[in-house]
Amino acid sequence: MMIDLHGRRVLVTGASSGLGRAMALTFAVCGAQVALNYRSDEDEASALVQQIQAGGGTAVALQADVSDPAAVAAMFEQADAVWGGIDILVNNAGIDGARAPAWEGQVPDWNDVVDINLTGAYLCARQALQRMVRQRSGVVLNITSVHERIPWGGHSAYTASKAGLSMMARSMALEAAPHGVRVLCLAPGAIQTPINEDVWSDPQGCEDLLQKIPMGRIGQPEDVANVAVFLASDLAAYMTGTTVYVDGGMTNYPGFAHGG
Ligand code: BGC
Questions:
Q1: Which of 58, 143, 183, 238 has fewest C-beta within 10 Å?
Q2: Cβ count within 10 A of residue 202
Q3: Are 86 and 135 in contact (CB under 8 A)?
Q4: Which CATH number covers residue 106?
Q5: Residue 169 belongs to some domain of the structure
């Protein structure tokens, strides 16, 4: 079965690297028109636009800091001007933040994580839903994490932001369903991207990480991108208000593979 997204207008936040980049490419391969949001990495975003265009796809790069309400509003107005609206929003922009126990953490670090991962996703979803409810169709796909469910020492802001994002999405799904709009979460596990390079590039860190993954391998960005296009497509037309985990089994208590 082919996933055909021709005619769909997609906005991917944080598209200049990692999962955002992979998802943007996969949406383009499926025929969607892709708007690539980036905050500061203009060169990476333009290179990706060119790569998509060279493959026969349609793409545009849109700069905005997702935590800035005025910048987000301006970005959606630009998308309106270029393509006349939006059909799929992928709320992907996110950061892990500094690693520290809560009592040593700094308030500005907490704010950065929550502003980008949670408030940023809210601001983008708000703009997208205004348009989608009006047109009576659309999908908001939020990239959460296994850490919407699994606690993570040193990352209380991150886990709080992802758990919050999940509940935000489920509430929005209730609101939007009668209007023909779906809201979902995709929760990746450990995927090999720049965000966790310090862990997978370190032999000890990598060994520790693999212990936490029943499938015994780190995920690749395509593992996430393939599920993202499915969830955003009409093949998933009866799915809303839930989280799909793409984690090699990480949420399945790997320590209980033996003993007990
Ligand atoms: C984080 C990664 C981490 C993974 C598994 C993700 O949400 O962004 O840094 O490797 O969770 O712990």
A1: 238
A2: 12
A3: no
A4: 3.40.50.720
A5: yes
Ligand 1 midpoint to CA 214 (Å): 15
pTM > 0.90: yes or no: yes
Which protein residue's CA is at the shortest distance from atom 4 of ligand 1? 190
**Residue 117 one-letter amino acid:** N
Boundaries of domain holding 181: 9-246
189 lines ligand 1 (CB under 6 A): yes
d(C-alpha 10, C-alpha 35), whole Å: 6
Q: Does residue 232 sit within a domain?
A: yes
pLDDT in tens, 156-172: 999 999 999 999 999 99
- Number of independent structural domains in the chain: 1
Q: Average of pLDDT values for 215-224?
A: 98
Domain assignment present for residue 252? The answer is no
Between CA 145 and CA 246 the distance in angstroms is 9
